[in-house]
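Input for the complex:
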Amino acid sequence: DVKVTQSSRYLVKRTGEKVFLECVQDMDHENMFWYRQDPGLGLRLIYFSYDVKMKEKGDIPEGYSVSREKKERFSLILESASTNQTSMYLCASYPGQGAWETQYFGPGTRLLVL
Amino acid sequence: AQSVAQPEDQVNVAEGNPLTVKCTYSVSGNPYLFWYVQYPNRGLQFLLKYITGDNLVKGSYGFEAEFNKSQTSFHLKKPSALVSDSALYFCAVRGNYGGSQGNLIFGKGTKLSVKP
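Predicted:
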């Protein structure tokens, strides 16, 4: 079974702090994604990566950056956390061989910025 | 632009009754459609997908979905609901973001509540 893990289930941070969210997948998938989930808005794509050291902006990249130094790990960085970044963050991975393939999600990190 | 709509924020069903969670989509080209379920404070779990072929797709936990090209719909169904089916359900369509055919475009989600 594909396994996508996220470093923290819950995080509480202060405004202005630098925050790192880590995601690891164990199935050698090419593509990895970061989404944020907010009530009534569904999931929105922040960034994705289709190869090591490659990254592309999604729909809402402002205030975020990412890092992919190794194929299995994709990190989301909040350079200076703000209260409007309080949300549920979901990481996902995808083999990348064809559009019919399933995307697999991690358990999510619920971030509270005070 | 590709998009997904889930017209109902919440669906209430009595246990044992059939359930339907609605989804309509807009895509250019062939649609690749997915349903995911999310239990409280959990990530998304894959239920089923439509790629091509038979319009009735069977998935996990007794769920199925009917693809209707003329109505651009992909409704999720189950013949007999369980209380444990209560969760948040997301419909999604495969995007084509930046040349990488991997991102999913999600609907806003439908909360399913099954009462005993």
